[in-house]
Amino acid sequence: MKVRHILATLYFNCIGICLTAQIVNPTPKALYISPKYFNADSISAHHVREVHLSISNKADGEIIVNNGKKQVYVFDEGGCMQSYHYTILTNPNYKKKGVAPKHDTIHTSVFCDSINTIIGKRVKNGDFYSGHYYEYDNQNRVVKKTRFKETNANENGDSTVFVLGVQKLLSYEKLDYKQLTPTQFKIISYNEDDYPFKSSIVNYDSSGNLLSKYVEYTVSWMREEYKYTYDNLNRVVTSEIIRYSGKVKKTRKEYEYNLKGNISVQRNYKQGKLVMEINYLYDNETGLIKSEVNRDHAHNSIDIVKYKYVLF
How far is the C-alpha of 121 from the C-alpha of 147, rounded, in Å? Predict the structure, then answer.
């Protein structure tokens, strides 16, 4: 199988995990690109151009309400994401006030190179844009990340056509890699003044699966620890994040798979307490996800997410 990454891989590979059958990709991510991650091979194999998600909510003891929340993802023929947008409620208490729901829409353009590595994204929020750009070494590892506040200099009024105007640097990170052992290396992160501000120790197994990452910030007490376990098919079974910043904050995800290799259940925990349980339902003919039923234990409600596909 020819693996095409839907996002750049930093220190782990996707072979054996990104199964063509699995359209949602739960592997550890080197970069935050979008609210949902999709398997590029599966998107391409199914000739998917767009994925539309419509989200309804049902509070315990109440009827199902469609409040207009949605997500839309657009891909090229190779399965690389080109753009996405999603809506957020600006008046979450609309039901109590007896008014209609109101939304803002967040638009993001994603940029890929010729081998489907993501080299940047631009997020539109109001009149301003946030540009995120990534550079790689010859091992396809991220070596530089920059973020800019940008303006659109397009004068014809068409906001869908972006012409770079003013660009102001917001953050800068240069990453330097040092191999410690065959399965461990260290990353030092430098700011724009070439001053080290973060160090990471990364461990992975002989199959290239990320096992753990320990992150320590130079000028603060902040520390982060990431842990992952896999089954004998190299599929993620658990992922855990522990953050130390005065208080210890723990989040954990657990995954179950059906006989076809697709995620059937995802459970999310905070501080050891189950807060969300996501059940995936699939179309028997296409094998694509047709819906999610997400039990929100923290807010005593259920989100029903329906999927619709536009094909090439």
Answer: 10
Alpha-carbon distance of 141 to 189, in angstroms, equals 13
Across the strands, what pairs with 231? none
- Which residues lie across from 128 on neighbouring strands? 125
Catalogue the E-assigned strands of the chain.
48-59, 65-75, 81-89, 103-112, 118-125, 128-136, 142-152, 164-181, 184-190, 196-204, 210-217, 223-230, 236-245, 247-257, 263-270, 273-282, 289-296, 301-311
Please state the pTM of the whole predicted model. Answer: 0.86
- 178-214 tens-digit pLDDT: 999 999 999 999 999 999 999 999 999 999 999 999 9
User: How far is residue 160's CA from residue 157's CA, in Å, rounded to a whole number?
Assistant: 9
**DSSP output for 89-149:** ES-TTHHHHT----EEEEEEEEEE-TTS-EEEEEEEETTEEEEEEEEE-TTS-EEEEEEEE
- What pLDDT, in 10s, does the model give residues 19-69? 445 788 888 877 888 888 899 999 999 999 999 999 998 999 888 888 888
The encoded tokens of residue 297 equal 């234990």
The residues facing 59 across adjacent strands are: 301
Find out whether 167 and 130 touch, Cβ atoms under 8 Å.
no
